[in-house]
Amino acid sequence: xxxxxxxxxxxxxxxxxxxxxxxxxxxxxxxxxxxxxxxxxxxxxxxxxxxxxxxxxxxxxxxxxxxxxxxxxxxxxxxxxxxxxxxxxxxxxxxxxxxxxxxxxxxxxxxxxxxxxxxxxxxxxxxxxxxxxxxxxxxxxxxxxxxxxxxxxxxxxxxxxxxxxxxxxxxxxxxxxxxxxxxxxxxxxxxxxxxxxxxxxxxxxxxxxxxxxxxxxxxxxxxxxxxxxxxxxxxxxxxxxxxxxxxxxxxxxxxxxxxxxxxxxxxxxxxxxxxxxxxxxxxxxxxxxxxxxxxxxxxxxxxxxxxxxxxxxxxxxxxxxxxxxxxxxxxxxxxxxxxxxxxxxxxxxxxxxxxxxxxxxxxxxxxxxxxxxxxxxxxxxxxxxxxxxxxxxxxxxxxxxxxxxxxxxxxxxxxxxxxxxxxxxxxxxxxxxxxxxxxxxxxxxxxxxxxxxxxxxxxxxx
Length: 462
Ligand code: ARG
Prior knowledge:
The chain is mainly alpha-helical and 462 residues long. It has three domains: 7-106, Fumarase/aspartase (N-terminal domain) (Fumarase C, Chain B, domain 1, Orthogonal Bundle), CATH 1.10.275; 111-353, Fumarase/aspartase (Central domain) (Fumarase C, Chain A, domain 2, Up-down Bundle), CATH 1.20.200; 361-458, Fumarase/aspartase (C-terminal domain) (Ribonucleotide Reductase Protein R1, domain 1, Orthogonal Bundle), CATH 1.10.40. 61% of the residues lie in helices and 4% in strands. The protein has 19 helices and four strands. The strands form two sheets. Strands 1-2 form a two-stranded antiparallel sheet. Strands 3-4 form a two-stranded antiparallel sheet. Strand 1 and strand 2 form a beta hairpin. Arginine is lined by residues 24, 28, 84, 110-111, 114, 318, 320, 322-323.
């Protein structure tokens, strides 16, 4: 049991059980660099404002650098008695430099200090995660380039629907992750506001200069309302929400890789380096990485719900409940980062089984049924009637056990006299894919354009 920095009004020491229950240093020590950067900026401001002397300011900054090095090298002792990373650093500073260290907390509270640390932390992590998302987009785009021209079945309801290019399918994920990057950038704007100076909740009577602290820490703005500032974790929730959606995108991709690597689909071979075996079944090669990515969505979504629930019903302003914000935020950063990196690696190392994809696109023979309907539309039949004509042809094919592509012209003409010899080009999967030239469609020239745009945006040579 140590002497508390706030121990003045207390007659007895804190119970050890309480120290253990309330401590957060086990997880918030991850913030030590941000805490020290914030304290240095604060001390320099105190010096500029004449609230501490230049010598005291120098002592503080020097002592903080020493402490940072000690934590870097694992030479720093943590104890429950000092609760969190902020108090550990401040106490150690007093041990190192004496009285000057006791002036660091002038005009500041841990309530605005912890908000600053978390904002600095998230700002960096958002930038890092954004790079990881871009790297994953690159993996997708490289596979799209490598496999340009490969046709596969496109699905709705997980039923074969219409033929598409594999590259078109991969670029769908490129778009999804592009929106994730936009959301990260947008969320960063609200993370990137400087909270220090709100003090406990009401601001401070001391002549501080918040704007200069903001400038030193490269924040474009300071927060507007001190009460909002210390009770606000919206920025953390926004981050958790953006992260949850990105994780959901990863999970959808993972699910497809699990399905596609089954013998039933057989669309993809995952690399040996990125799969695992079974301890009992010697023949197994399991897609554990995509399964875990899919499974880890649970915790990332859970972290968002956790943060929302912490904030729900909290009266203004700071309440200790807010200490519970950190573990979900840190876990989200760690989990999403790992999943993004592994997904990018796994994609870069897998091989698509082109013959299986092509065969599946052609197989069944009904993937171009819509094309036949469109053919009739171009000959003047209203679409609903065309749909019904083709439906009857499909039903006939199912009865006689033949694909649509194998009906003769005479057989086809029984369903509509508008059908002529040129119908067969539209019944081929290549013809079908090539015809879908609407903006955003799967025609090879459209996909090549989209691929070119993606490569340019990511700065990779096509
Ligand atoms: N450990 C606290 C947290 O993470 C720091 C702020 C504590 N402030 C207080 N008034 N007890 O939220």
